[in-house]
């Protein structure tokens, strides 16, 4: 049972980034997500709450998981497809949301290719009337708050703490909003971060969070291995890419898996490139938490949505 103080600490106007979250709020969100996962009663809201999921980049997990979370919380979800929307007639993101807000939508879950797209939606001047909670479902190569928090929940379920855990983030660091979110929050929570994969994807940006180490030098030391998808769609100039060569040099092969610590876990935000980041037969191996991450995502997103509903006073207990 959360203390009243924590309920107050989990009232948020928007959920845009993990950068402003303090450790007690992260723990509170994990507690709340675990409560929902254990079958705890969902809050009853005194009025219908209408939400929209606006995914301007492709998604399977995040989109469907937010929709599931909304349904479990009893929200009404308004369909929105960017491909058939008036965005294609040149309507801005702000004006699109203003339209949805005007017809009664009070929560928007948004994924967009532009880093920090949300600034134009939340830093309003006094002539602007937009009054809705924005939940960031991924902004370019910036942040992926819900993936980060479901990752924290999954690690916490395994180890019960973060302090001193050795965590390697391996792969396409340059393009990864998951890496940028996870490294920051894991460091704040007391984990030791290492980076691996092709060294040209490691840059000075990552130095304050952890060092680069070759995968064969860290594999038997890590408690958590976070594998990142190679994001070809974000590469400006695609160099000749050999999936087999990547897998052999940087990927989690069956041989490397055998060297991992007994209690270690593997995570991957998905979608997985089988045979590239990891061997196909390891996707559902005992150390893999891929399915657990996706399952936890629904409950963490319920906790995040609830925090914004409470922060904006939309719910009001019946
Ligand atoms: N993890 C993740 O963001 O997956 P999707 O792109 O399928 O939502």
Automatic annotation (TrEMBL):
One of its GO terms (molecular function) is aspartate carbamoyltransferase activity. Pathway: Pyrimidine metabolism; UMP biosynthesis via de novo pathway; (S)-dihydroorotate from bicarbonate: step 2/3. Keywords: Pyrimidine biosynthesis, Transferase. It comes from the Bacteria. It holds the Pfam family OTCace. InterPro entries: Asp/Orn_carbamoyltranf_P-bd (IPR006132), Asp/Orn_carbamoylTrfase (IPR006130), Asp/Orn_carbamoylTrfase_sf (IPR036901), Asp_carbamoyltransf (IPR002082), Asp_carbamoyltransf_Asp/Orn-bd (IPR006131). It catalyses: carbamoyl phosphate + L-aspartate = N-carbamoyl-L-aspartate + phosphate + H(+). Carbamoyl phosphate binds at residues 61-62, 111, 144, 147, 270-271. It is an enzyme of class 2 (transferase). Heterododecamer (2C3:3R2) of six catalytic PyrB chains organized as two trimers (C3), and six regulatory PyrI chains organized as three dimers (R2). Catalyzes the condensation of carbamoyl phosphate and aspartate to form carbamoyl aspartate and inorganic phosphate, the committed step in the de novo pyrimidine nucleotide biosynthesis pathway. This is Aspartate carbamoyltransferase. The lineage of its organism: Bacteria, Bacillati, Bacillota, Bacilli, Lactobacillales.
């Amino acid at each position: 049972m959360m203390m009243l103080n924590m309920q107050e600490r989990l009232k948020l106007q928007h959920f845009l980034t993990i950068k402003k979250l303090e450790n007690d709020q992260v723990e509170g969100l994990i507690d709340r997500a675990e409560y929902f996962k254990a079958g705890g009663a969902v809050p009853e809201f005194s009025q219908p709450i209408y939400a929209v999921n606006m995914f301007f980049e492709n998604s399977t997990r995040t989109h469907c998981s937010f929709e599931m979370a909304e349904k479990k919380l009893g929200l009404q979800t308004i369909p929105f497809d960017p491909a058939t929307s008036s965005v294609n007639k040149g309507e801005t993101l702000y004006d699109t949301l203003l339209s949805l807000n005007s017809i009664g939508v009070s929560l928007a879950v948004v994924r967009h290719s532009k880093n920090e797209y949300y600034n134009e939606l939340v830093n309003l001047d006094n002539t602007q009337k937009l009054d809705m909670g924005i939940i960031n479902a991924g902004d370019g190569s910036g942040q992926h708050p819900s993936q980060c928090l479901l990752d924290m929940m999954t690690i916490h379920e395994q180890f019960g703490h973060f302090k001193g855990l050795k965590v390697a983030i391996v792969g396409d660091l340059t393009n990864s909003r998951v890496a940028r979110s996870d490294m920051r929050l894991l460091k704040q929570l007391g984990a030791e971060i290492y980076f691996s994969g092709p060294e040209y994807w490691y840059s000075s940006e990552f130095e304050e969070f952890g060092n680069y180490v070759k995968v064969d030098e860290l594999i038997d030391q890590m408690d958590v291995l976070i594998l990142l998808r190679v994001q070809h769609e974000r590469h400006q100039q695609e160099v000749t890419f050999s999936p087999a060569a990547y897998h052999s040099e940087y990927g989690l092969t069956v041989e490397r898996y055998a060297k991992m610590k007994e209690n270690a876990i593997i995570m991957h935000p998905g979608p997985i490139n089988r045979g590239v980041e990891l061997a196909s037969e390891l996707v559902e191996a005992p150390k893999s938490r891929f399915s657990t991450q996706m399952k936890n995502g629904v409950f963490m997103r319920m906790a995040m949505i609830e925090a914004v509903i409470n922060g904006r006073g939309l719910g009001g207990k019946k």
